[in-house]
Structure formats: structure tokens, C-alpha cells
Amino acid sequence: MVKKLLWAMLPVGFVGMIIGTYPGYKAYEYMWKDAKFCMTCHQHDYASLSWQASIHGRLTTCHDCHHQPLKQYVEEMFVLLTQKDIYPMTMKHLPYVTKDLCESCHVTHPHDVSSISGPFEGEKLESIPKIENTRLHALHLSKDTTEPLPKAFNLLKEDVSKFGKFQEKSKLKPHNAKAQERKIVCVDCHGGIPNRAHNFSATDASCIHCHEKIAEHPTPLQEKFGCRNCHFTEFLVEQPK
Amino acid sequence: MSVKWILFQVFSLLVGIGIGAALIFHVMFLYRVLPHGGLW
Fold this sequence. Notes:
Radius of gyration of chain B: 17 Å
Number of domains of chain B: 1
Distance between the termini of chain B: 52 Å
Low-confidence stretches of chain B: none
Order of helices and strands of chain B: H
Strand content of chain A: under 5%
Helix content of chain A: 40-55%
Helix content of chain B: over 70%
Distance between the termini of chain A: 76 Å
Shape of chain B: rod-shaped
Number of strands of chain B: 0
Low-confidence stretches of chain A: 166-176
Number of helices of chain A: 14
Structural class of chain A: mainly alpha
Largest sheet of chain B: none
Strand content of chain B: under 5%
Largest interface: A-B, 34 and 29 residues
Mean pLDDT of chain B: 90
Oligomer: heterodimer
């Protein structure tokens, strides 16, 4: 009897499955591509407002940049249902953002663009100015460093006070970090501790993080104007090809 | 065709829509999450 009923359900059920793909896809689009979905739970006003006000706010959505393991989604749902989340006391880690992510839009030949699903995707990405065409960006990206990535500093602990301030090398390194040489990446300057809440402007603290000799003995001019007042144009103006 | 039969077919259609929607939603979700965030 049950078998007979299931067979009777099959043709209409199959048609239903095909019809169902449309609302299913729309639900996925809302969940993945619409920031309103994320903001129903993530009530971080400072981050939401700064994202909306920034250029990224008009061109990207949360999931373009914030990737996390599947396990984390399950954990989030559990926390949401069982605990009262009080920021920042209950924050256990920084948001998941990979160090190569900026490349997806801002470099001519990125490693990967498959995560970009926001309103700005595909061919439109090519029209974004590419940073390797500016002299100082190209220079920095070609250099190596042994400095730890900014995410190695624990934002929720006292490490924050060490970033961008001159002190002995050994104190600057987070515990157990081995000084391995690696290429400088975008987040070294645009993802540091001063770049909280969707503010990605490089700050003088980011420069000093590596150019520490200048920070130790600054000239009166450097002390008065900092780094970027003089050097920012070479980071922004494209070089003629 | 009895009313019962029609209601049964409507029920089948709704079940199908539910399964189809859930299937495409989860396939797309996993397609986005797994390559970048991974499983664990």
C-alpha cells in the first residue's frame, strides 16, 4: 500500500521538485548575497554602518569576504538559540577572512575569484583599478618580510598595544611565532589592528610596523606629518605603461 | 477522480516543492562554503 502511494506521488512530486528549485535558489540568494540576512542576527552597529558607508558596502556582501568552515555555521545557530551573545565579551576569534582575499578584485591576475558572489562580479571586476599598477604597491608586493601577519596578534588581549609601536623585536613577535620569510600581502597594511570594522585604509601604524627604524628616530618632519601625507600619492596614482 | 485523490496529488506537489527547494538551497550553500571555509 505504502509502495503504491509513493509511486502515485512520484510524477507530481517530481514536477514539484523542479518548481521548488526556484524558491530554493531565491532563498539561497537571500541568505548568501543579501547583507540584510546577516544583519538580522549580527547586531554590530559600528561594523554594519562602516560597511554601508564604505565603497565595499555598495559593491560587496558579507559572504564575499567572510568565509568560515561549515562547522562554524552549526555552532552559530546553537549559540544563537541557547546563549545571549554580548559583544565583545563572547567573541572568541576574529572574523574569518583569508589573507589573499583582496587579490580577488584588486590584482590583475588573482589566485581565485570564485568567492565573489556579490552585486559586483564577473567582467565588472576587471574594471576596478589594479593596485600593482601603482609604484609603491608594486614595490611592497614584490618584497619579503618576516613580520607576523596582523591576525597573529590577539585583538582581544594585550597584544593590541604592541602593534605599530616601536619596541624590541622579540617583544613584537607573538608567542611561538617562527620568523619565516614570506611575501608581503595586502592585509599586512590594510588588515591590521587599526583597520577595525571595515575600515581598510592603511595607517601610519601599519607603516611603522615594518619601517621601525624611522619610528625609532623620526625627523621633525616625519614626526609632524607621519608617513602617508607624503607617500600616499605613489600608492594611488597609476604608473604610465 | 475523487477529491481525496486530488488532495493527495496537491500534497505530493507540495512535498516535491519542499524537497526541490531544500535540495537546491543546500547544494548552493555547500558549493559556496566548502571550497573556501572547509568542513571543520
